[in-house]
Write a structure and sequence with these properties.
Largest sheet: 7 strands, parallel
Number of helices: 9
CATH architecture: 3-Layer(aba) Sandwich
CATH class: Alpha Beta
Low-confidence stretches: none
Mean pLDDT: 97
Strand order of the largest sheet: 3-2-1-4-5-6-9
Number of strands: 9
Bound molecules: D-galactaro-1,5-lactone
CATH superfamily: NAD(P)-binding Rossmann-like Domain
Number of domains: 1
Order of helices and strands: EHEEHEHEHEEHEHEHHH
Length: 262
């Protein structure tokens, strides 16, 4: 592939997904520049700074071809904290990318941007154009990220993929995750596809593995070139024996956002 970005800024590099991508993305040929509020273990060249540090962010952005933006608070929190980290922080990230001439951003969103959407009664797949319906202030901050990405695509021509990530973990950790799991290997495949696939604006894609009980339509992710290889079904018998199936009216089963709607 000739148009693959080589040098990629990875924000939130010390976090759960960041740690996994630091291990796996170099195998796809990327050179990573890591950025995090916390020191990144084993990477003395990582930038330890907050997104509010405009100088550090501008310097980190210099010479990179693309950004994978994972930094932020990954769950419900006081609004002031989400405002600073997820809303203002993502705006600062996009502004710095625009100023540096970066053309592609992979924006880590979340299924909680649509978390109050009820699942179809027949348990079928939810389409990719599900309108935003946040389940928390956290989900609302992820809606902002999607809309910001859309604005910067239309106004500034920055291509973005907003990933509505499901449940990232080495293995599914509950019954809901049989539908929402994203394995580390598939996460790296998805981010690689989002960095290289045809975008031409702003694309929203769900981020899950090839789960037999998948909750979301992966068509936009597949159009980017994503070919998931893992399936939570492998863990189903054991999880169901241990935890039992979810009742139809259990929020974990009924709403896309599961317990975040409680
Ligand atoms: C998320 O957005 C969270 O960051 C993660 O901790 C999980 O709760 C995940 O969603 C999920 O929905 O399983």
């Amino acid at each position: 592939m000739t148009n693959q970005p080589r040098s990629v800024l990875l924000t939130g590099a010390a976090g759960r997904i960041g740690t996994s991508l630091r291990e796996l993305l170099p195998g796809y040929g990327y050179r990573l520049r890591c950025f995090d509020r916390l020191p990144v273990p084993g990477d003395p060249e990582a930038v330890t700074a907050d997104l509010q540090d405009a100088g550090a962010l501008a310097a980190a952005m210099e010479g990179v071809d693309a950004v994978v933006h994972l930094a932020g608070i990954p769950g419900e929190a006081p609004f002031a904290d989400l405002l600073a980290a997820n809303i203002d922080g993502t705006h600062r990230l996009y502004e710095a990318a625009r100023a540096a001439g970066v053309r592609r951003i992979v924006n880590a969103g979340s299924n909680h941007a649509v978390g109050f959407t009820e699942r179809p009664a027949d348990g079928g797949i939810v389409p990719v154009d599900t309108p935003q319906r946040p389940d928390t202030l956290y989900g609302l901050s992820k809606c902002f990220g999607e809309n910001l990405a859309s604005l910067y695509a239309d106004r500034h021509g920055i291509e973005s993929v907003s990933l509505r990530i499901g449940s990232f973990a080495p293995a599914p950790r509950g019954i809901r995750a049989l539908g929402t799991w994203l394995s580390p290997g598939d996460c790296a495949r998805l981010v690689h596809a989002a960095l290289t696939g045809p975008v031409g604006g702003h694309v929203v894609a769900y981020g899950i593995s090839a789960n037999t009980r998948a909750w979301w339509d992966l068509s936009t992710a597949r159009a980017l070139g994503y070919e998931p290889q893992d399936d939570a079904e492998e863990y189903a018998a054991e999880l169901i024996a241990e935890l039992g199936e979810l009742a139809a009216d259990d929020p974990e089963h009924r709403y896309l956002g599961g317990r975040f709607t409680r």
